[in-house]
Amino acid sequence: MNSREIIARRVGQEFKNGNLVNLGIGMPTMVANYVPEGVEVTFQSENGIVGMGPVPPKGQEDPDISNAGGQPVTILPGGAYFDSCFSFMVIRGGRLDITVLGGLQVDEKGNLANWMVPGKIVPGMGGAMDLTVGAKKVIIAMEHCAKDGSPKILKKCTLPLTAKEEVDLIVTEKAVIQVTKEGFLLKELGPGVTVDEVKKATGAELIVSPELKEMEI
Amino acid sequence: MSKISDLKTVMDRIKDGNVIMIGGFLAVGTPEGFVDAIVEKGTRNLTVIGNDTGFLDKGIGKLVVSKQIKKAIVSHVGTNAETGRQMNAKEMDVELVPQGTLAERIRAGGGGLGGILTPTGVGTIAEEGKQKMIINNKEYVLELPIRAEIALIKAYKADKKGNLVFRATSRNFNPLMAMAADYVAVEAENIVEVGEIDPDEVMMPGVFVDAIVLAKQPAIDEVKGGA
Fold first, then answer.
1. Domain containing B149 — which CATH number?
2. Which partner from A30, A160, B2, B176 sits 20 to 30 angstroms from B116, CA to CA?
3. Which residues from chain B sit within 8 angstroms of residue A68, using beta carbons?
4. Whole-number average pLDDT of chain B
5. How far apart are CA B144 and CA B18, in angstroms?
6. Which of the 8 DSSP states describes residue B7?
7. Dihedral angle at the C-alpha atoms of B186, B187, B190, B193, nearest 10 degrees?
């Protein structure tokens, strides 16, 4: 199992029956493939759709039906379309149970940075600032370290923030870490990963949960 | 009175330096015929308000490539490398606005409101230079309304009075922008007689619309093989 699959599988386990969920662009989108059996969730996308279905087979794409990444998707029976104001009323208005987003940095206060690297890349925040503020639960799905090996889970974010103190849970290929008032709580380890390995790859103190276990994925 | 118009009439309204809203979300629901016509006309120094700057060859991105935009007010530019280049080279000014805030600022502009209070962006650079208020112990940022001189929007169906029906996720910012500009032109895939759209099915009342132009590209029904 590669890192991305480990992360997507583990994030899927956070979904509860009846949840309304928004998946960010990139790896978070993969989570749609790993909703546990018996759990029914509804996907929302900020471009104006609730009840979003899977990507259509090639040749059957409808140019008017897309997700927030602009990729062709489908709509399931019972789904609905709406305008951008309405979409963010769903998000900011407290109807969204979970948002899953990628991250560049997360710190122990639950601050998130994922929308720009000054002087390098400034893609813009899109809907991420509204999603993090609005969703009841914010899950960050990301690889534990940056491509150069540097930690992304930090004592304090150095990049411009997307949201202040909004992150609830971080899921990486190495660990499941909860943001608590006391700091980062290490709850689960990735397959074959040790506590020392997680500590070495993390730029902040970790509180090891007494119930620490390996991910069951 | 019929609001049926033509591309030339709409383009004659658009002048150098105009502030223009353009509907669409990553080019889904963007009136491509209008965008192409602005590229052809060569109008310059535009301020463009939209969700994003599309792609190099699709959506608002075409106006970036042709260097007709002085300032873009958008939520996302990551799908268009040319926007990033012009932004870094200071050839184009880009104001990045959180997407939900952008939608609400446009709605406020259209609805005669003095602004909106949102929790989005609190504690980030998106709040810089803005007034903040604490209401019921929660912090909010005051975001000001946006209006434009011209809104160019896309609809699936219009009747001759300008009542509109949008289709699927191509709705996005289109109805909001139709409320927030002095002159609103619609690129419609289908134009029908007055009375053919059930009043209960109208998504955008024609009172907001000034001009309707039939889209050049094939209507979605043709793309889908007459489905």
1. 3.40.1080.10
2. A160
3. 25
4. 95
5. 19
6. H
7. 30
ipTM value, please give it: 0.96
What is residue B217's predicted lDDT score, i.e. its pLDDT? 59
Asked if B104 and A88 come within 8 Å (Cβ–Cβ), the reply is yes
What is the tally of structural domains in chain B?
Answer: 1
Give A20-51 pLDDT, tens digit per residue: 999 998 899 999 999 999 999 999 999 999 99
Q: Is residue B199 part of a domain?
A: yes
Does residue B158 form part of some domain? yes
**Residues of chain A below pLDDT 50:** none
β-bridge partners, A184: A179, A206
Separation CA B10–CA B34 (nearest Å)? 8
Mutate to test the interface with B, among A43, A47, A60 (most CBs of B within 10 A): A47
Tokens (6 digits) for A148: 């150069």
- Nearest one of B36, B176, B188, B123 to A47, comparing CA atoms: B176
> Which one, of B74, B61, B50, B68, lies nearest residue B11 by Cα?
B68
Percent of chain B with pLDDT over 70: 95
Q: How far is A122 from chain B (nearest CA, A)?
A: 7
The domain made up of A3-214 has a fold known as Glutaconate Coenzyme A-transferase (3.40.1080)
Name the residue with tokens 């009542």: B163
DSSP symbols for B65-81: HTT-EEEEEESB-TT-H
d(C-alpha B146, C-alpha B126), whole Å: 16
3-state secondary structure of B165: strand
B121: chain A residues, CB-CB within 8 Å: 129, 133
Residues of B in Cβ contact (< 8 Å) with A88: 99-100, 103-104
CB-CB contact of A131 with A93 (8 Å): no
Q: Under an 8 A CB cutoff, do A70 and B123 touch? A: no
Which structural domain, as residue segments, surrounds residue B207? 7-115+145-216
**How many C-alpha atoms does A187 have within 13 Å on its Cβ side?**
16
Spatial distance between the Cα atoms of B17 and B70, rounded to a whole number of angstroms: 8
- The rounded distance, in Å, linking the Cα atoms of A29 and B212 is 37
Q: Which of B176, B102, B99 shows the shortest CA–CA distance to B143?
A: B102
Which residues of chain A have a Cβ shorter than 8 Å from any chain B Cβ?
Answer: 45-49, 62-66, 68-70, 75, 81-85, 87-88, 91-92, 111, 121-130, 133-134, 160-165
Across B167-189, average pLDDT: 98
